[in-house]
Design goal:
The protein is an alpha+beta fold. Helix content is 23%, strand content 31%. The chain is built from 7 helices and 15 strands.
Length: 349
């Protein structure tokens, strides 16, 4: 709706790092009646598979899909995203405006739908995308089973959850201690493996590759820890958005891989950790001539004693006219007398 994406300020939150579109910060929404178009191959995606056959699926999306009445401006789909629907006419410097996009992020999946799903922009989307309940009449808001609308969202939820479900059966499982770090901060990575029967963990090679913009930035070997039965490594990427891929080889055979997203960016240290630092605060108070206060009874008493009523500073202003002082008045009269005598003696009056 109107407060989603850039208009809701989501480009300033962690959501911006997860969703498959880059959000525009200033021009945000547009009311517009349209039916989306679909890039080549988009209708083959599992989210879009509604019809029993490819031909039926194409009819459901291209002919039976109702009008949408608005959408959010976004910059473009991110490099790893797949665009499933786009605006038929509205474009920017990157191409057609994105309406629907999906992406695999780390161990999960995300989806962005830039229009609306119910009342408002999506009123027809919810109520007219289906078959008539009463076959003798046309599709209308009161005569529609919304079967395609429901099937689409069932597909979306199943696809979004499938990535996480598949992780339980993956032979390689990568876990990062954190997905956001500062440039000078090391991130601990842990790799768990399901090894074949009889395989020696010490002979298994595990490596981590940091990829940024499709280019390998770092390759870090992971070391086996016999105590925990895990492979550990320390990552310290440069500034940027990266995909960390853990790959395992046993006896020359690839066991599999797993991926996680890692973002390294400059942060304000004051806001990155907003927890109180009492020792630092007390030191600042001492240097600046203040008093450290605590939440106990003694601290409260000290605070109250410093807040005792004090007599306000009084500032009094007095206005004394110049003419009330005789020297100034005599000087003024003398000057006027001299002027009068000068004028009379020289016939200037």
């Amino acid at each position: 709706g109107f407060s989603a994406y850039g208009s809701g300020g989501y480009q300033k939150t962690v959501i911006d790092k997860l969703i498959p579109v880059s959000m525009e910060q200033f021009v945000n929404v547009k009311s517009d009646s349209f039916k989306p178009t679909f890039p080549p191959g988009a209708l083959d995606h599992p989210v879009m598979q509604i019809g029993e056959t490819a031909a039926e699926n194409e009819v459901i999306w291209k002919q039976k899909f109702p009008l949408l009445y608005g959408f959010n401006y976004v910059d473009h789909a991110k490099p790893g995203a797949t665009v499933l629907a786009q605006h038929p006419t509205q474009q920017n410097q990157f191409g057609p405006m994105v309406i629907l996009a999906v992406q695999e992020v780390g161990k999960g999946r995300t989806m962005a739908f830039t229009s609306d799903t119910t009342i408002g922009w999506g009123a027809d989307f919810e109520t007219l995308w289906g078959e008539p309940r009463n076959g003798s009449g046309p599709v209308s808001s009161g005569n529609c089973d919304s079967r395609y609308y429901r099937s689409f969202w069932i597909n979306a939820v199943r696809w979004l959850a499938a990535g996480r479900a598949a992780q339980h059966h993956n032979a390689v499982l990568l876990q990062l201690a954190k997905t956001y770090c500062r440039p000078d901060e090391a991130v601990t990575s842990t790799v768990n493996l399901r090894l074949p029967a009889g395989a020696n963990p010490k002979n298994t090679i595990v490596s981590l590759m940091i990829m940024g913009d499709g280019t390998a930035t770092q390759s870090v070997p992971a070391k086996y820890d016999a105590t925990t039965g895990q492979w550990l490594a320390q990552l310290q990427p440069p500034v940027g958005n990266f995909v960390v891929t853990a790959t395992a080889m046993a006896a020359g055979t690839l066991l599999g891989d797993d991926k996680q997203m890692l973002v390294c960016e400059e942060t304000d240290r004051e806001t990155s950790d907003v927890r109180a630092a009492p020792e630092l605060m007390n030191r600042i108070a001492e240097i600046s001539g203040g008093q450290p206060l605590t939440a106990d009874a003694a601290g409260r008493q000290k605070l109250l004693s410093n807040l005792k009523p004090q007599s306000p500073n009084m500032v009094e202003y007095r206005r004394t006219p110049v003419w009330s002082r005789w020297p100034y008045l005599a000087l003024a009269l003398g000057l006027l007398t001299i002027e009068w005598i000068t004028r009379r003696t020289r016939n200037l009056a």
